[in-house]
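Collaborator request, handled under Task 6.
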Amino acid sequence: MTSQNPYLDLKKASARPYQICKRCIMDTSDPTITFDDRGFCNHCIRVEREFIGKSWQPNASDKLQARIDEIKKAGKDKKYDCLIGLSGGVDSSFLAHLVVREWGLRPLAVHVDAGWNSEIAVHNIEVLVRKLDIDLYTEVIDWENVQDLQRAYMLSGVENQDVPQDHVFFSVLNRLVIKYDLQYFLTGGNASTESILPSSWGYDATDSINLLDIHRRFGSRKLDKYPHMPLWRRHIYYRFIAKFEAVRLLDLYPYFREPAIKTIEDLYGWKNYGDKHHESRWTRWFQAHYLPYKFGIDKRRAHIASMVMSGELTRDEALEAIERPLYDPTQLLIDTEYVKKKLGFSDNEYLSIMNAEPKMYSDYKNAAAILNQLRRIKRMLRL
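Structure tokens returned to the collaborator:
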């Protein structure tokens, strides 16, 4: 797995002179970042202006209770009150704990198995489902379809390699809405660890036009068993007609990552897998190797910067955390060999992919203009 491409000097990844925010730790590894005359970046300024005290009110117990009551009312006389995703990660696991033990809701947990679960993730899902006594719906995606699409994404060279898995989740979720006549999906998304995430570091996984064009160019088999979802169904039918809503209750709760980990470890025997989203072997390799190597992106930086803005970390603690190694060298070698074998790439094919010119979603057909317009409409309607 040797390569001509130096691994890794993220501070030199940008063509711009290096600069780091004086309040959070976002830097010029985001090519679109800007700084004001205080040296504060546009990301933490946006958090301050658009999140804090608005959608993010971690001590708004009255608003939280009102939302819980609303969800219970909508679920009256139904088998479930809501859907929740369950990946085995911190956010979704702690949310499941709150939903059942603290808030008394009756959720249907949803998990998508795209062939990359770690043993730790499987363990975490099993102990939570058993000890919380909740139903779990697992969608196992046909591996030949997933493999072909995942190979196509690797060959395309785009930044967001998680789309093949993430897109399926949205598709399955929206199908279950109809089946169980539900109105709410409680997501583990939260401003405490995710208020900062540069748009230049990824792309919308719901864009089926982009997904299908990448597969058309680089795939080799028909996606006959892959449950992709047309754009209109996700963003128009479910949101405006079915009135299905994704709710971030963790933004109305004093949520901090480390105390959450301790709670679910103590109560459920939950096991820690390391950095955010590393419960998936694929996502661990993609975020901790592919993105830094090919794009100069360390996604930990955005999550850690978010934790600075939430007050969970000081800036000095964040600077110390971001200097820790992205990957244990031995584990990196194991995971890389696993990815190559599972996706059927030879050593030469793999090196060619990793050293090829990086591409953006916009190099392929996409619905970005439509999605941006829909977001503007939602903001105007306050949806």
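The cover message to the collaborator said: "Residues 163-180 form the longest helix (18 residues). Confidence is low (pLDDT under 50) at residues 1-8. Please let us know whether this matches your experimental observations."
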